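Why do we bother with a discrete structure alphabet at all? Because it lets us treat a fold like text: something you can write down, compare, and reason about line by line. To make this less abstract, here is a complete entry for Large ribosomal subunit protein mL45. Read it the way you would read a sentence in a foreign language you are learning: slowly, and without expecting to understand everything at once.
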Amino acid sequence: MATPMRRTLVALHRATCSSLKNADASLDLRHPLPLYLPVRTKKRYFIPPAVGTKGMKDINMEDKARKAGVAPRQQYFERPINIASTSGIFDPYIPPEGDARLSSLSKEGLKQRTEQIKQSASSQLAIRKIKEHDPQFSTKSFAQQAQEIFVEAHTALTQFNKEKLHSLLTERCYPEMTRGNRYKTIRWSFIESLEPPKVVHARCPDMISKGNLYGQVTVRMHSKQTLAIYDRFGRLMLGSEEQPKDVLEYLVIERHLMNPYGQWRLHGKIVPSWAPAKDPIHKTVMIPGPDLKPGEEFDPLTYEVPKPKAVQWSK
């Protein structure tokens, strides 16, 4: 009984398949490919470890590579450096307290003068090294040249001329002068020199190798200047354009002596410990105004600023 039934089903299956093939050929139909959709299963909070990896985390891979005869790759922690300028001021000049105030004829002024003469021996040796690489260097003419570099650098800062600033400032001084000035307006002017600038300090340090020399010359400059800084809304933050001030500064000018195309550039300033504190910045505060209805205009003449309410603090 089972055998005839099986033969009947096989014959019926063959007839059905042949009829479907004939229908597809007549209608020229193409069946779409099967579509597979990813289905997210239940989230597993524990994944069992793979076979044979038990205790592998405790093994140091470097020691395992050395035992296998494979040298592990060495990791280098490097940071880029720039040899066109130094990263700081070597043996900075210490300005005498009361400079530009004490007379050289007074007792304290004579003491300071004698100390400067004693400390000028190392400066003379540095000036000799600088003259070996820059024969045109002279302390008398260099002071005036340093003042011109200072004026040109600050004039370019007010205009934010990047190309000129890079030619007048070292890579250390550039971020210090331009940081935080993107949305500000600077008005600066040089009026006159109260005293002629003079060279007070000189050093000739080396970096990386013994023959890679840099020249650092400190110039004392006493002048009259005006400075005004406005914020991005045009409000005055610091200084005044009309009121000049007497400014005593110690400028550090640097040059890479081993570079034949090197130039003297502004490297930084020395601020003495006895210098007076800077003027505070005028901060602008928004005063709350009245709640206006549509169509109303604000009249600042008749408006009174509300006073804060008195608060009784509990004892």
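What the structure line is telling us, in plain words: Helices lie at 2-27, 61-67, 107-133, 139-159, 162-168, 173-178. The beta strands are 185-203, 214-230, 236-256, 265-269.
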